[in-house]
Amino acid sequence: MRFHLIDRIDRWEPGKTLAATKYLALGEEYLADHFPQFPVMPGVLMLQACVEAAAWLWRATTNFKHPVIVLRELKPVKYGTFMLPGRRMDVTADLTKFDAATDTATFKCKGINDAGESTVNATFILHGYSLADRGPAGAATDTRLIEHWKSRWALLTGELRKK
């Protein structure tokens, strides 16, 4: 399974903050196993929605400099209420620190359901890098990844909507 846990990017301010939305549908594959009689979004996927929102903020901030962005370090995570099917989770990521020497950035992120209840709060560090130094195949992969991320950004931000 490949998960995209951000359904829409609502607003952003490069270098500062990004607000995104996740709609939890009952048909999402992982809900069949988590848990059949009481389906809820796994906590690790709520955290992943935060990481994705932060990665989008970093891409918007650096003009898609890093084709690959990975979770480097995770501080303690606090979970709140369960995320149930049919609900919406609003995710806000704030960039708190950027280290150009190590290509890392620190983010604070929170998720709140459509009833205003906290679902997840986390602080973490992301690391961005390129594959170009791994040879010609790496450089070609970087190009394809950046094109993919830019296309997905256009979809999530609504740039592809009819005017």
The main pleated sheet reads as:
7 strands, antiparallel
Order of helices and strands: EEHEEEEEH
Helix content: 25-40%
Strand content: 25-35%
Report low-confidence residues grouped into runs of 5 or more. Answer: none
N→C terminal distance = 34 Å
Report the structural category. Answer: alpha+beta
The assembly state of the depicted protein chains is single chain
Q: Taking all residues together, what is the mean pLDDT?
A: 95
Radius of gyration, in Å, reads 16 Å
Shape: globular
Number of helices: 2
Number of strands: 7
Description:
- The protein is globular and about 50 Å long.
- It is an alpha+beta fold and 163 residues long.
- Strands 1, 2, 3, 4, 5, 6 and 7 form a seven-stranded antiparallel sheet that branches.
- The longest helix is centred in the last third of the chain and has 22 residues.
Short synopsis of the structure:
With 163 residues, the protein is an alpha+beta fold. It has helices spanning 43-62, 136-157; strands at residues 8-13, 17-23, 68-74, 78-79, 88-99, 104-113, 118-129.
